[in-house]
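Form 7-S
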Amino acid sequence: MKIAINSILLAIALLAIPSLLMAKDIGWIRSVPNVVVEDQVYRVNIQRINGKNPMPAHRYAVDAGEASIRVSLILESQWAPKLKRIHHDTFSQEFKMNVEAGTTYIIGGKVDPDASKEEQDDGTFWRPTIYEKSAEE
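Output:
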């Protein structure tokens, strides 16, 4: 009898776990899947979310509220042949964003293909950008 009651309590607890996870307010972030040439938006690697290294995934769950995101630009030279790789550090940037629960953010790197050598050297030839934002249904 005692084992049956413990089994029932365990089953109830296991059934409650998904609803507890769903109750947490989260949004989602992911990289643009392809280069958007007409907008000069390139793919990025999401390196850090709120100071933590995420496991590789298609999209990442992020707690609602302010988030700190570090991304690195995936620059494909065939789309921006005028840009030259100068320093690796110029290809990683951190930015803050406000994450709304139930919302997906598609992040990319907005590039200035006509950037000067100085802008390429100091990394100001690109910036992280929220390319699209959509509410989950």
